[in-house]
Amino acid sequence: MNAGPLLRLDSVNKVFPGGSVGLDSISLSIERGEFLSLLGPSGCGKTTTLRIIAGFEVPTSGRVLLDGKDITPLRPFDRPVNTVFQDYALFPNMNVQENIAFGLTLRGMSGRDRARKVKEALELVGLPDRAKAQIGSLSGGQRQRVALARALVCEPQLLLLDEPLSALDASLREHMQNELKRLQKELGTTFVMVTHDQTEALSISDRIAVMNKGHIEQIADPATLYDRPASKFVAGFIGTTNLLPGVFLQREPTGIRFQVAGDWRPVVTGSTELAAMAGTRLTIAIRPEDIVQMRKGDPDTFLGEISSIAFHGHSLRLLVKLGSSSLWVDVPRDRVETDIREGAVIALGLRAGACCPLLAA
Ligand code: ATP
Description:
361 residues, alpha+beta, Rossmann fold, CATH 2.40.50.100, 6-stranded mixed beta sheet, 5-stranded antiparallel beta sheet, binds adenosine-5'-triphosphate, ATP-binding, ABC_transporter-like_ATP-bd
């Protein structure tokens, strides 16, 4: 086994017949035992990337390396890679254990070893009693588990998952997210999952590659993507954020005064990198939870008018009008200072380090 990354995509391009560009020079390394998600809007190239790794699609140029070996010319079946498809692709004419045993039979495994492996796989996914069940009698979540067992039983070096939970309802989906993560950590298998659901990607992945128009915008762990998005696209795609174009004015005792387009001039604090940015035009990103309700008259507060209120469980999400711009603001329900209602004027302030100034205007 090599010491380097398990999988590497090296300047992979894909142009489809007819000229549509699927991937535009994707380079990416995936470590052993890592759970990496490919996240992005419809048409950004997630599935094409997965299909190229699996061998169902041939890149127009570039290479796919597994364990340091160039596998670009290999057919899907010759790669130590398995895929769980969005629709599970189970064989409806076979029962659960026959579905799971299928890949082992193809590999010529003997009856007793095969039966043992199938039993272990069923226990792993929590279905030890359903070996003889017909696929048609299973629920969506159970089918999902059979598809996982069928892919994992062959002990692939790499498991690819194409929107594996998209057919499940919200509560089962959350449960299966935990199950997927548990399985992955227990087995130590490297997982690459395609999803367009940012909450799912953030809660399940070690790292996330955010894709846009055939390229990778940023690849990082969930907290870095959330706290330090590298572009406006990433900031807007991961969670809700306020993107405010403006200019840094001058240093003040408590931070740097920032002039937002319009008339809001908050003092923002943060790392020393901010101090070097006086006079620079850029966009700052501020998360709704980093804007806090203050008392009117407190220093460094600003006033806005509440235009709408949405119930978000432990907090209220307000849309607050500030001159010509509007801000999303989350107010924890147990920390509401005054009456919150549409049309009311509210005093707001920024948490220390609330602003991410890394985005070009
Ligand atoms: P979705 O979330 O909708 O599945 P995606 O991010 O997986 O989208 P891809 O399916 O990888 O996106 O498609 C990337 C781009 O390549 C899109 O513009 C798509 O139209 C194009 N594309 C994908 N497959 C083909 C094909 N077989 N022929 C022509 N164009 C294709």
